[in-house]
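Bug #77: duplicate submission created two jobs. Keeping one. Sequence:
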Amino acid sequence: MTLALRVLRPGMLTTVQDLGRPEAQHYGVPVGGAMDRFALIAANRLVSNPIGAAALELTAGGCAFELLAALMVAITGAELNITLDGEPLPTWTTIFARSGQSLELTERSQPWGARAYLAIAGGLDVPEMLGSRSTSLAGTFGGVEGRPLRAGDLLAVDMPRVDVLREAGRTWPAQARPPYSQLPTLRILPGPHSDLFDSATVAALLARAWQISSQSNRMGYRLEGGSLPNPPTSSIPSHGVVPGAIQIPPDGGPILLTADAQTTGGYPIIGVVVGADLPLAAQLLPGDQLRFDLTTVTEAVAAWKALKAWEATPLGDNGIVGLLAWAAALDLPLVD
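Kept job's structure:
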């Protein structure tokens, strides 16, 4: 174990996340884990970690860290403004950094982007609980004491041997990423209670852009933009729910469940966002907008296969000549 980072500024919400606890749902424990699972997997692959290694989820930027060792890192997801000792760094790229340098992530540089993922070669070394190192904010366990990071926190990694000449400077191709955008359209399949909703209600859900409310968090997004007509008023038994489910409470205001969603709920579900589009929803902040569109099971399966193919994108070598030019531009040493 090697100390890797000291938190100088934690930003709005920075937590340790991995791929969550899907096997613990039958205990009533939310799946949790990264909101944007694709970005987490890509960051881990860029630094040659297992795809589910623990990394940092940084919400809305505003973070700064002191590096306590020479590290191989990658930052994916939201297009934030990132600097290393004041010099701009690219996202979706493998970076070699020296001990003592300062890594800073500020506001987003694109009109979209909510969550960035900082992966370090070796993976963050925090205790595993119920098969995961991810932070459960509602359960106050996992990650670092079950809470967001604070200034002064120290984070360690299980330091691996890394091949700097082969790996530093690798970039994840833009064409192998989800189509992140300022106003994404999320494809949905009919929900388990679709028979409780008439055609006017479904048409109203699809007809408008919905805005993420300030009353939103990792459990779910409350959506603003009007109330759906004719929401069901009869009560239904509590039932299992999953991230991506769109619940409709009696006031007609949709709720899109996300990574930390509870495992059961009592509101009827009008539709469920297909898994391939959940990364798009993860990159939205309060005030951002989204739309919904009906799809088919066939299209949903095809989209999932495409996402899995992107996750397995071959990365290969950066090439020594390209690495030397890249390192010289940032005045980085190739050994520490």
